[in-house]
Design goal:
The structure is a single chain. Strands 1-2-9-6-5-3-4 form a seven-stranded mixed sheet, sandwiched between helices. A two-stranded antiparallel ribbon has the order 7-8. By secondary structure, it is an alpha/beta fold. Helix 6 packs antiparallel against helix 7 and helix 11 packs across helix 14. Helices cover 45% and strands 18% of the residues. The longest helix is centred in the middle third of the chain and has 21 residues. Bound molecules: nicotinamide-adenine-dinucleotide (NAD) and zinc ion. Zinc ion binds next to helix 11.
Length: 366
Amino acid sequence: MLNVQRDAPVTLEVRAGSRVSTISIGEGISERLPALLDDAGIGSRRFVVSNPTIWRLHGAVLQQVGHAEPILIPDGERHKTLQTAARIYDTLIRAKADRACAIVAAGGGVVGDVAGFAAATYLRGVTLVQVPTTLLAQVDSSIGGKVGVNHTLGKNLIGAFHQPTVVAIDPLLLKTLPRREFRSGLYEVVKYGMIASRDLFDRVRRESKAIFARDPEALLPAIIESCRIKAEVVSADERESGMRRILNYGHTIGHALEAVTKYRRFRHGEAIAYGMLAAADLAAARGALAPRDRQALADLITLLGPLPAINDLSAAAVVEAARHDKKVTHGRLHFVICIEIGATTVVDDVTEDELTAVLRGMGLKD
Ligand SMILES: NC(=O)c1ccc[n+]([C@@H]2O[C@H](COP(=O)([O-])OP(=O)(O)OC[C@H]3O[C@@H](n4cnc5c(N)ncnc54)[C@H](O)[C@@H]3O)[C@@H](O)[C@H]2O)c1
Ligand SMILES: [Zn+2]
């Protein structure tokens, strides 16, 4: 894995269709945002969208990017709605923002998704810049162009593909992130290790203490490697017709766990941690994954910290929820399994009995 020079930002690219997104990753990069956006040719009418929590902590730095007052949306997943997008449109219309304006989403996945959705739809699409402030957003949601909002009947049901022109990732912004939020993002880093990089997996294990301490020397390479994997996969398959599916490793069961607990019990990454364990158990039961690798994943997840309990949940309810996940096409459950740490395959012959047995094995009730 690359050794990173701490003072020079690392640049990655996502190429999707004719569009190129530039991802700049570097310590302290958020303080140089105005120049970074100038260099990228982004117009000077920049509307920052954020939330009051982030603004209180990082507003002093982030406000340099905006040309006007920030658009602050309420904090929390339950505000990732069309109503919140409408509030963003209101401000833009009142300010007579034209097609040359840019929206700068400064926040976690919620701000990024809803502000990104507003950018995708306002005047049929304006420039989007992502300045992710959670680990989950830095390694996952800010990259790849998926934007959207929830509907009362389901998560992320309304959305679009809208690639950000620039993604600026500053690990120093993570210093203020609560430990549980940080850990939630770290499980997605583990996911990248499982699907594409044994090196990254080992690094998280080896340097977990320094990573938790947000020591840039340990954290920065883990973020860069995660972003590199996501950028590569998205460039190969923007619309998720094939390869991008591997990013859903752990997400079939993870999403089902989130749904059966009404999105209240788990942070997203925590549910994915269980989802990865389930996928590893399933692969091991089929003889597709060595028991040693399955155990390495279980050990790493234990090392990273406690997860909410699952033994009161019904395996049948979780399987039923998995069946309703968006990843079902033509009635077949696509399931990403890891065949060794760093390599995956997609199977579509997973039976409900097989899933139920795995979940029972993890301690869920009937
Ligand atoms: N678009 C995609 O490809 C994609 C991928 C994965 C997840 N998502 C979406 O991302 C969302 C989850 O994102 P998230 O986990 O970042 O949650 P979040 O955006 O709700 O942020 C978590 C909490 O951390 C706070 N916070 C953010 N930055 C902070 C900082 N630097 N210091 C202190 N507190 C800070 C937020 O205010 C919030 O309370 C979900 O809606 C999910 O659907 C989207
Ligand atoms: Zn995820």
